[in-house]
Structures are given as C-alpha cells and as structure tokens.
What we know:
By secondary structure, this protein is α+β, with helices and mostly antiparallel strands. The chain is built from three helices and ten strands; from the N terminus they run βαβαβββββαβββ. The chain has helices spanning 14-25, 34-42, 102-112; strands at residues 6-11, 28-29, 51-54, 57-60, 63-67, 75-80, 93-95, 115-122, 125-131, 137-140. The strands form three sheets. It has a four-stranded mixed β-sheet, with helices on one face. The longest helix has 12 residues, at 14-25. The relative contact order is 0.20. The mean pLDDT is 96.
Amino acid sequence: MAFDVQIAVDCAEPHVLADWWAEALRWQVEAQDEAFIRRMIDAGHATEDQTTHHRGALVWREGAAITSPHTGRPRVLFQQVPEPKTVKNRLHFDVRVGEDRQEAEVARLKGLGATELWRGTQGPHSWVTMADPEGNEFCVA
C-alpha cells in the first residue's frame, strides 16, 4: 500500500509564508475551522496561546497549509519553528512553468517578494534559483 505525502516547511511566520506561496503557486490557503479550534480550547485540549488571528480569523499559531486546486497534489504545511534558517535547503520546490513562461514568472515572483539567487543550465534545460521571503530556495523551470 502506498502512502500519501505532505510536504512540511519550517518557517518563522507560517501564515504569512502560506499566503505568499499560495499566491506564488496560484493555490489556496487551507481554511482553518474556528468552531473546531474553539471546541478544542473549551474542552481543554488546546489553549488560547496556541492560537492567533490572521486576516481577521482565529487560527492555530504554529501552522498553515496550502492546497492545489488540482487533485492528487501534496498538501504543503508551513510550520513555525524557533530557529532561523541558516544554511542552504537540502530539499526544495521546482516550480515548473515551462521555458516560454519562465522569465514572466521570475518577474512575477520577484514582484511578490522573491529574490533571484542564480541561474543554471544543463543541456537544453534551464532554471532560475530563487528564495522566498524567508530565504527558502526554490527553482523556476
């Protein structure tokens, strides 16, 4: 039996980064159920300090997720960690937009706050390595 996969990204501000990546990938931020969160607090399974407000909604402080509008794609969870990013990622996203759209997407992502780091080629393939607002590297190919 095969397993499902969720991709988890450590970060400082999960809700801000989830918003950014949802915009970057044209995905959506997964809604959090305020009524469920309140029930968990009322039942003693969670505390108020485990929550925060983001865009006017009550949410879990330590995590936010994005999902693709297309089925079969993995959920991406952004989870809060106390330590800052200090080294290059050992795993990264390859955002595959196609050669004809690559430059336009690089420009759009820069407009959203990404930083261009370097460009690479291998045979007929090229990519642009970028960093999201928290410094996590990703490639646009």
